[in-house]
Structures are given as C-alpha cells and as structure tokens.
Amino acid sequence: MSEHRSGFVAMLGRPNVGKSTLVNALCGEKVTIVSKRPQTTRRSYRGVWHQEDAQIVFLDTPGIHKPVTALGERLNSHAQVAADDADVVCFLLDATQPAGRGDEFVLDKLAAKATAIGPNAIAPNIMGIVTKCDLVKPAIVVKQLAALSEYNLSDYIAVSALTGDGLDTLRDLLIQLLPVGPKYFPPDIVRDLKWEDWVAELVREQLLPTLREELPHSVATRAELDDERRMRCDILVERPSQRPIVIGHGGKNLKAVREAVLPHLPEDTELTLRVKVDKHWQSRPERFGC
Ligand SMILES: Nc1nc2c(ncn2[C@@H]2O[C@H](COP(=O)(O)OP(=O)(O)O)[C@@H](O)[C@H]2O)c(=O)[nH]1
Ligand SMILES: [Mg+2]
Questions:
Q1: Which domain CATH number covers 138?
Q2: Is the pTM of this model over 0.85?
C-alpha cells in the first residue's frame, strides 16, 4: 500500500486572481466565499481535500497588497502567516491580466523567504498557477506561463476553476510535493471554520454585491447561534448613514441577502439579520470576526 501524504497548501496572489474560487473547486464544495470585488476574503480559510492516500489542507488567504488601513495590514499578515505555515505555496496569476507590479510584489516576498532558506534562487514547493484560462485564448495562457517561468518555481500549470480544466492534475502535482503525513481532519470535514463564522461569511458574501463602491470595506458581519436552528447575524457598519443603504428600501436588501443565504443552511433554520453602527470596527482586530 502506498504511504499517506498530507500537508498544507497556501494560495497566494493579488486580490481577485481567483484564489477562493480555486480552493472551492479543488475541495469540491463551497468552503470559502467569492466575489467580483477585490479584498473580499478577510480571514484565512482552510478547506480540505480527502482521498484514500492523501489529504490536502488548502489555505485560502486574503490577497496581498500594499496596506493602507489596519484591516489591510491584518490581511497581509494573514496571508504571510499562511505562507509560512504551508508545505506548498501556490502563486496565482490571472490569465486575463498582464503580470504586473502587484504580482511582482507578492513574488518578491516569496523570493525573499526562499533566499532566507537557501542560496539557490527560489526554493522548491512554490507552484505557479495561471487561473481563469477559460476566459482567454491559449496563446495568452502560454504567455502567462512564460511570465511565471522567469521566477524559477517548482512547477507551472494552467487551470480553470469554472470548467475544472487542470484541477485533477494540479491536485496530483500538489500531493507529490507533500510529505508523508497523517490525516489532519476526519473525512467528513471539508471546512475548518466554526459554524457561526461560516454563516457570518455567507451573509457578507451575499451583502457585498448589493453595496456601492466603497461600502463593502466598511461592513463586517458577526453571527451567533441562539439554538441549533436559530441564528442571529449582526451586520456592522461604520456610519449611521450607511445603515439604510444596507437595509435597502423597505428592507429589500436584507430580505434578498437572507433568501440567498438560507439555501446554504440546514432546512428550517431561522436567520435574523440586524444592522448595527460601530464606528471603529476596522481598528479593532477582535471585531474582524467577519
Ligand atoms: N471565468 C472564470 N472566472 C473566475 C475563475 N476563477 C475565479 N473567477 C472569478 O473571479 C472573481 C474573483 O474570484 P475570487 O476567487 O473571489 O478571487 P480572490 O480574491 O483571489 O479570492 C470572481 O468573480 C470569480 O467568479 C475561473 O476559473 N473562470
Ligand atoms: Mg478570496
């Protein structure tokens, strides 16, 4: 019988390259939230892929970027901690965007880490992945792979989380890079997040598209379990003027959010949403439970 391999694989890359979507696709189930807006992912999620001879724990991270707020700084540090903990780091490059300074910023950080480990260029176990390949012609995919290859990573692959192209191969490559190790999670666990926190995230995911430009960054969510089938979720905003925007005309927004979240919860769950003003939630790390 072959040995059991397991370990942690961190997804890194600019905001919006498709980290969260790829983790969901690789795990075969929704384990992290996705949005068209950058900086949606605020915490480091873990999603687990199980097969008989291997277990991959995927770490979805907030995108790395130049921080301007306390929240931004915290997001960067989440991503770096995940990279430090990982057996393999996946660096993602968006097929639809030319490689640019944002990508260099992340790769240079990884390179600095690799240099600290040894003198031979970039250390092994950094996988270069071109994402969203369904959206571009093959020639563009090749160009993006070539851009990644300048960084001397351990492997390169092009994938589409939408069509599933490349995902089986990617999992196989990752498993080969993982050490022999135990099953970290029982087979029925796909997501390493408290149920309340997952519900809070689902609410935030559904809320984001309904909000105008800057507001998404001003919103946090926090859920509590009243009992097994009754949940309350607070939506925190920074200013009183933001409250009616979140609620929507006659409660329209909140109703739509609730209806979009409920199908992800066990049948008969009651979900109550409240909007609260908390001016300083961004500056209080403990309030990031969002
Ligand atoms: N067509 C297509 N869209 C994708 C793919 N992966 C991600 N997206 C979209 O790209 C946007 C950003 O994805 P997300 O996973 O939230 O990016 P993150 O910020 O890196 O986590 C979302 O609108 C996704 O639906 C893909 O493989 N194909
Ligand atoms: Mg994300």
A1: 3.40.50.300
A2: no
